[in-house]
């Protein structure tokens, strides 16, 4: 593994059977970093053409300046989310609540009236103004005609997600009753249709601190309205995962229902799945897998993981497509049939579906599910059984009548896992946690020490790890796996952890910006990060090579050269314990 060095300029050097094993069609799940859309017309010309502040090409900016805008919300996040959101430099409460300005509810001009429209096609001024009116109507819809306590709470949310059909019929809303939002959904549909009828495709609209992001998967529309200051790429990625979660439950063949009846009501098919979508949306604020395109493994000794993989391989040879042993959202072992690979997104959506469905915990289950990255058109069948409170075994097959065979396989697997003490080791690892920055070896003489040996810590002065290292995430590009250090002081509260997570999101988006090309390193002080409940700066460092990506947070007074050396040390440490934190042998997904 090469070391990171700096030059003089500061740059770095160094229920159907699947139709085969085909992966996702090209028109589904666009790359997370994609910003541009397919252009079908000529760029905007004249005064409307110009560079965007966010790097989008052909941005069309026009201030409507007509009348008073209807008020829009200052909202908050999911009640169960960890920490606060937004880029404010002030400390916010952990539930993301934000009090609305009284003037907004008195009909005064709203500071978030739409002033910019983002697209890549040519629209005349009259068309742009028409879109502005529609979007301002959407923001105005945040003040509904009913004024009960529920509507007040709904307006205070900072981040909304909506799913609707191309006929404007509401399918899902993160907050509130989607059936009461029929008019709101119709307005969203009108905006999308208006732009599409002009031969264009709408990506997002910025209205003050609000951002409206659109994802069109005909006949399904997905919309996110957010004022959390997350980058467009992150919000688009979240919409793609929500769409994937819907496909996992229904498959893409639900489109046939809309072909027969464009006004088809899909809500009965998703009845009882609100907890699944809420859990996924909650993960957007704490699970790095939602933007890293990778999965994480539970730290285990090499021999323990090999013992688990051996029995799963024996099961896979008996006709199981995938055998997956997980503890919460962490992988213990994964085995698939020859030439079959499980995409990290499918693992994320599958684990979220299982962990958020109470029925899986109460008894062994055999349920049809779709893996959208593997094949979005067909169902597989998942046998799920919880071995303890957090550890569960999932066996995937193409046969709808293999329940009893999979049950026998589970009994065999469970017996071996108990006799070989794998389950007890899994429980111990969950209690011990993963890598800690305080345990980072200070010199090469400590490299031979194992992650699983007790008390791998050295005396530290100050807070965090060596050279002021607070936290890091390491992603293996070849394995599609990542490891993240445990949170510790000074990033101890859920609010601080959430802020750091979103800072990582922004850093990831800037490093993978298609408009500016691939970066190798980035070192910057994030003025939006709050730590220790006082206003401070955090130093963020990202290092990307052909083999790995490293994201790290340092003390605000950290020296750049020392931070670089510490990152080299982190990479060496990860390499020394890779057999304990990564799963080898699982087929990596070919991107």
From TrEMBL:
Residues 97-110 have a biased composition (Basic and acidic residues). Residues 468-577 form the FUZ/MON1/HPS1 third Longin domain. GO terms for biological process: protein targeting to vacuole; vesicle-mediated transport. Residues 159-280 form the FUZ/MON1/HPS1 first Longin domain. It comes from the Eukaryota. Residues 1-20, 41-110 are annotated as: Disordered. Residues 319-412 form the FUZ/MON1/HPS1 second Longin domain. Plays an important role in membrane trafficking through the secretory apparatus. Belongs to the MON1/SAND family. This is Vacuolar fusion protein MON1 homolog.
